[in-house]
Design brief:
This protein is α/β, with parallel strands linked by helices. 41% of the residues lie in helices and 22% in strands. It folds into four domains: 2-187, Rossmann fold, CATH 3.40.50; 197-269; 295-492, P-loop containing nucleotide triphosphate hydrolases (Rossmann fold, 3-Layer(aba) Sandwich), CATH 3.40.50.300; 499-554. The longest helix is centred in the middle third of the chain and has 45 residues, at 189-233. It is globular and about 135 Å long.
Length: 555
């Protein structure tokens, strides 16, 4: 069933063309991911579809009720949540804290704001969902819940996202906005990425064939013109055998020149092929872990609480040389707090954290960023790093800062660009341990891939918080997780972590079944026994079994 019809859609701002002559029919089975660099026009396209913006040309027809999640949710900071949102439940979505609806909007986390707005959209009875970066600020558990909801949704979904795992699990079509053109791919993100790779290879092959053919024709044309000129020089002379007149050489020279002109016309008529556009992809070797011992950071029996709110207890951990550690956990479990405790920016409630005197820490905060607004990108990075100017400019080019862009003032940058500047300062800085809190926030997919490559080649140690599962799987060789007020350490990559989580969960299920059988047998014996001492013994055993059952069920 047709849900959205788009015809000949075009939109520009000044001389910048976002897209031209875009047409598509969207049916109820379509779940479409919209991707592209920051500023490419993704949010603009969504706003045109919901008729919040007017296109320069073309039209959109909607058939059904639209549920729309904007990228930014603006409400008065002092207003109470219950003034704008009703308490509703939606199957498969996460619970809220009890006092949330009596809290002020300004006190809410980004994740709480996103979930509230998503809940409002999902419970409004939409037949079409249009979502602009719905995973922003959500933890992995919440993202997985949203994935299940969108997979079950009986209608089309259009969503903008930079979360590649999320796109793979939800979408069956991909719309790419790239350099003023919109292309549609009949598959999820992984399918799109592979098709783009094939397209780029073919484009290079076609371009190289074009350049080779053009060069051959140009050389042949030059060679014939040179021959024509040579013949013209001897047209007033007779050869040694006195066989030809000067008219013969004139005619011969003109004929050769004519064939050269014919080749030039062939070149002019050739279909011009531009060199395929491709960002720089240069590998660097940054950082050094050889000037430290094997252990950089060690924590023992660490406890943290804010009043009655206990975040974690008895946490023990170590950061070793060349570790790349992903710190996971639901929002509010204490991930940022733990980072700040390692940095000695937050006191411990109990325990000890030791940091080697040889460690030089670079820190990327969630709150971005202490940059000088009056400096250019190049000045800001050069003043805080140890690299030479060529290395710095080349690396900034890899981070999608072109030659002109490195001269932009910090004050004129987008949030995503400021993140990239800060990451450049950290990666090129004289640090052997990088601690990063949500390094991919505000970055588009291309920027995330660039940062992944740079951090993969980083020779120091890395501890980072992220909800981007693709980013985690590319980088982490160790996973920490804060859950149920405990820090669990998994000495392996993200796949190992997922395997162990499932393995432990299955083991817990088996233990629960076994204990439930034992408890049932014990209670049956308790009902049948008459001896008072035996009753007390059996009752004590049943209480212990119940405690163990409750503990396992919480896991």
């Amino acid at each position: 069933m047709l849900s959205i019809s788009i015809r000949n859609l075009s939109k520009s701002y000044g001389e910048k063309i976002l897209f031209e002559d875009f047409s598509i029919d969207i049916s109820s089975q379509d779940k479409i991911g919209i991707i592209g660099a920051n500023g490419a026009g993704k949010s603009t396209l969504l706003k045109i579809i919901i008729q919040e913006l007017e296109p320069d040309k073309g039209y959109v027809r909607l058939f059904g009720k639209v549920g729309y999640l904007p990228q930014e949710i603006s409400l008065p900071q002092e207003s109470l949540v219950r003034e704008y949102f009703k308490l509703r439940r939606y199957k498969g979505f996460t619970e809220f804290r009890k006092d949330l609806f009596d809290a002020k909007w300004g006190s809410l986390s980004g994740g709480e704001k996103t979930k509230l707005k998503l809940l409002e959209v999902l419970t409004s009875g939409p037949s079409v969902l249009i979502l602009d970066e719905p995973t922003n600020h959500l933890d992995i558990k919440s993202i997985e819940g949203l994935e299940s909801i969108l997979q079950r949704f009986k209608g089309p979904v259009l969503l903008v996202s930079h979360d590649r795992f999320f796109l793979d699990r939800v979408t069956n079509k991909t719309i790419e906005i790239f350099r003023g053109k919109i292309s549609v791919y009949p598959g999820n993100y992984t399918y799109y990425a592979e098709q783009k790779r094939i397209e780029l290879e073919r484009a290079w092959e076609d371009y190289e064939k074009y350049v080779s053919k053009k060069r051959q024709l140009e050389e042949a044309s030059r060679e014939r013109l040179n021959r024509a000129q040579s013949v013209s020089k001897i047209k007033d002379k007779r050869d040694s055998f006195w066989r030809y007149s000067k008219d013969f050489y004139a005619r011969k020279g003109a004929k050769i020149a004519k064939s050269a002109k014919a080749l030039e016309k062939r070149i002019e008529k050739m279909e011009t092929k531009e060199k395929p556009y491709e960002e720089q992809n240069i590998r660097f070797s940054f950082g050094s872990s050889q000037d430290t011992g094997n252990i950089l950071v060690y924590g023992e029996n660490v406890r943290k609480a804010f009043g009655d709110n206990i975040l974690f207890i008895d946490a023990s951990f170590s950061i070793k040389r060349n570790d790349k550690i992903a710190l996971l956990g639901a929002n509010g479990t204490g991930k940022t707090t733990l980072l700040r405790m390692i940095l000695r920016k937050e006191p411990l409630s109990q325990g000890n954290i030791w940091v080697s005197s040889q460690v030089r820490i670079g820190y990327l905060d969630q709150e971005i960023l202490l940059l000088d607004p009056n400096k250019t990108v190049l000045e800001e990075v050069r003043g805080a790093t140890i690299g030479d100017i060529t290395t710095i400019r080349t690396f900034l080019g890899c981070l999608l800062f072109s030659e002109d862009a490195v001269l932009k003032k910090i004050s004129n940058l987008s949030t995503g660009e400021k993140v990239r500047v800060t990451l450049a300062k950290l990666i090129l800085g004289d640090y052997n341990l990088l601690i990063m809190d949500e390094p991919t926030n505000f970055l588009d997919i291309k920027s995330r891939e660039v940062i992944e490559r740079a951090l993969k080649d980083y020779n120091g140690s890395l501890l980072f918080v992220s909800h981007d599962r693709y980013f985690i799987s590319r980088l982490a060789n160790t996973v920490w997780e804060i859950e149920d007020k405990a820090l669990k350490c998994y000495p392996g990559d993200y796949d190992y972590y997922l395997y162990k989580r499932e393995y432990d969960r299955d083991n817990v299920k088996d233990k629960v079944i076994l204990l439930e059988v034992q408890l049932a047998n014990l209670l049956a014996k308790l009902d049948a026994v008459n001896d008072e001492k035996e009753k007390i013994r059996l009752n004590t055993q049943s209480i212990e079994l119940k405690r163990e059952l409750n503990r396992l069920k919480k896991e």
